[in-house]
Amino acid sequence: MIELERNLIGARTEAHAKVEIYSGVARMARTVWASEVKIVGTNPSTAIMICHPTANFLGHYALAGLAERGFGAIGFTTRYVGNDASLIMENCLLDMGTMVEHLYASGYERVVLVGNSGGASIVPYYQAQALSPSVTAPVGGGPDLTTAGLRPVDAIIMLNGHPGRARLSSEWLDPAITDESQPFVRDPGLDMYHPDNAPPYTAAFITAYRAAQIARNRRIAAWCEQQLDWLASSPDAPAGLDDISFIIHGTGADLRFMDGTIDPSDREVGVTLWGPPQVANYMPAGISRSSTCRSFLNQWSIDHAQGDSLRWLPEITSPVLVVLGSADPTVLPNMAQQMYDATTAASRRDLHFVKGGTHYFENQPDQLAEALDTITDWLA
Q1: Which of 20, 108, 171, 185 has its CA 20 to 30 A from that of 207?
Q2: Any residues with CB less than 8 A from the CB of 229 and at least 6 apart, and which?
Q3: Is residue 299 within 8 Å of 192, Cβ to Cβ?
Q4: How many CB atoms lie within 10 A of CB 179?
Q5: 11-20, 120-129, 198-207, 363-372: which range is least confident on average?
Q6: Residue 293 dihedral angles phi and psi, to the nearest 5°
Q7: Which of 164, 169, 147 is nearest to 217 (CA)?
Q8: In this predicted model, which residue has the larger pLDDT, 21 or 1?
Q9: For the chain, what is the largest distance between any 2 Cα atoms, rounded to a whole number of angstroms?
Q10: What burial letters (b/e) apply to 63-80, b meaning 16+ CB within 10 Å?
Q11: CB atoms within 10 A of CB 185
């Protein structure tokens, strides 16, 4: 039996430019954390660092399997772990860069970034800005990436990853909510659960629904811009306050949850990762539920967010691998295909579907092994 060791590694960061997390302890620590898993007594030459903007990957399900295959498996967390309410995407890139530098400095010859789930929003963005930095003034007040000195990694991988948080949020946003202050007052003509709009949905309903989702995303963005303008210009605004938070209801209303004929896959229809769609749509722990105005514009706005893999993949010249479970209820094959198709400049690009694999490969040891073997063989 292979014996593994797990180490907690910390990498020092610059002081936060502003209060983004309420924990003073975390701000003073100026450290981002990761767990390193490897075979006892070994010093692997390649580190595989699994990334997400907010998820706690210290105990990621793939770490042990990657370590058993001879890698240094790194489960990384940004400063925003467990809290995307005030997240600024470009700060995630700074945190990633700090850990990447630490891994190279600690003896790893190669570092590979894996964008898992929402991590595919930041991994291509990171590599593009490390190879040829161009973003100077991100919306929401993020850092100038042309002065960040991000170090390029050797390859990037998308594992069960969707193209971007703003794209996903827009495709999940409930257009039946037309008044943000009354989340349960619904427009029946745009209600995916109304009996008159039962799946399979008509082409006309799908077109109207998608347009209304984008329109709602833009209404929220416009409201955020108005609030920020008021804070910046009104004499009644509290001195020094440059952002406020708010709640977004109805963020789990993707038509594909209820209609398997839209973007067909092996997924189970009528479920989400958080239970029935009707519940996930409103539950307090829902995606993009709580946000500040700056953070919404930075990560969720379809017109402003730059953490979009389809924007950056065409600029990446290093090798790119896309791996997706075909039964993932959230990330669908066409999303993986979009990322693969966008990878036009890479020295190598590959796409692999794990038949029957779900989002977390939960209780699926064979599918998980296939995904990890695919990564291993590709890196070899």
Answers
A1: 185
A2: none
A3: no
A4: 9
A5: 11-20
A6: -65, -45
A7: 169
A8: 1
A9: 68
A10: bbbbbbbbbbbbbbbbbb
A11: 10
User: Tens digit of pLDDT for each residue in 137-195?
Assistant: 999 999 999 999 999 999 999 999 999 999 999 999 999 999 999 999 999 999 999 99
Residues 6+ apart with CB under 8 A from 369: 65
As a whole number of angstroms, the distance between CA 291 and CA 84 comes to 7
**Percent of the chain residues topping a pLDDT of 90:** 93
What's the residue count for the chain? 380
Domains, the chain, with CATH or none: 4-164+307-379 (3.40.50.1820), 168-300 (no CATH)
Torsion angle of the four alpha carbons 195, 201, 207, 212, in this order, in degrees rounded to the nearest 10 = 30
Instruction: List pLDDT tens digits, range 213-237.
Output: 999 999 999 999 999 999 999 999 9
Whether the Cβ atoms of residue 340 and residue 351 lie closer than 8 Å to each other: yes
What residues pair up with 32 in beta bridges, in sequence order?
11
Between vectors from CA 172 to CA 167 and to CA 177, what angle results, nearest 5°?
125
Query: pLDDT band at residue 282, thresholds of 50, 70 and 90?
Result: very high
Give how far the C-alpha of residue 236 lies from the chain's centroid of Cα atoms, to the nearest Å: 37
| Amino acid of residue 160 | N
Q: Give the DSSP per-residue string, 303-361.
A: TT---BHHHHGGG--S-EEEEEETT-SSS-HHHHHHHHHH--S-S-EEEEEETT--SS-
Q: What is the pLDDT of residues 303-358, one digit of tens each?
A: 999 999 999 999 999 999 999 999 999 999 999 999 999 999 999 999 999 999 99
Tokens of 219: 């209404």
Distance CA 345, CA 320 (A): 10
